[in-house]
Amino acid sequence: MSLSPSRLPLVAVVGPTGAGKSELALELAEHFGGEAVNADSMQFYRGMDIGTAKLGVSERRGIAHHLMDFLSVREDTTAAAFQAMARASIADIRARGKLPILVGGSGLYVRAVLDALDFPGTDPLIRARLEGELDAHGLAPLAARLELVDPVSAARISDGKRIVRALEVHELTGRTFSSFMPERRYMEPTVQIGLNGDRAQLHARLRDRVHRMVSAGLQDEVAALLPQGLREGRTAHKALGYQQFLRVIDGESSAEQAAEETITATRQFARRQITWFRADPRIHWLDWGQPKLVDAAYEIVRASTGGQP
Questions:
Q1: Does residue 220 form part of some domain?
Q2: Is residue 17 marked as binding?
Q3: 19: annotated binding-site residue?
């Protein structure tokens, strides 16, 4: 089934890790004639496959997936750079009469694509200095500084990378990082479908998934990425599972302990994702366990086109 190019919305499939976003995106792409645009920031990295639950080529049903595997583990990107790449991919997909489907749980990256969102510039010297302070003194002093200059951002963010970014923006522009977050306003006709479900069931799904990753060779995948610069990259080595199994390789932990730590960290991450996406009233939420889930998603997309089949 296909939609008229003039009636193609941008579809975004969002929600917590483990909710089944990739599978639903495949169903929508097959049904409506679409292509996927990845918005999971850890799936940008080549070789990080098992630990990110990345669909293998043979699992993609012949459907094109954009913005996967374009970074080495030594490299990094920004939300602003991703915004430009994703919007270019979406425009290309639509120009070919296909339905663009953004899929992933990296909340800021999703919003960067969907909304009228401008990003302040960067200063490598300021960034490097702040990162040096983070490495030397830990998170607490920077978090305290952010609380003084931007209490709104301080209440929202807790990881070192984003605190450094918020302080960099304040020092560079004199404005708070939070002041750059706009009202929710789509750049183009868009429909968001969110997947969520029973919390206990999600926890069980995440536990099972981590154990499958370990059985599939997550530790070997981490070891294979070391010669490619996994430790040297600023972001990749912090990914869930990878940082835990790096400690196993270093002899600081056991595989069993790393698996349990990964399960705990993944549950915490999923909770933060749910909080982020629940704040967006425009999302159409579906329970992943509901009968005829896929049919319900089809109807949401069809309704966004005025009922056109």
A1: yes
A2: yes
A3: yes
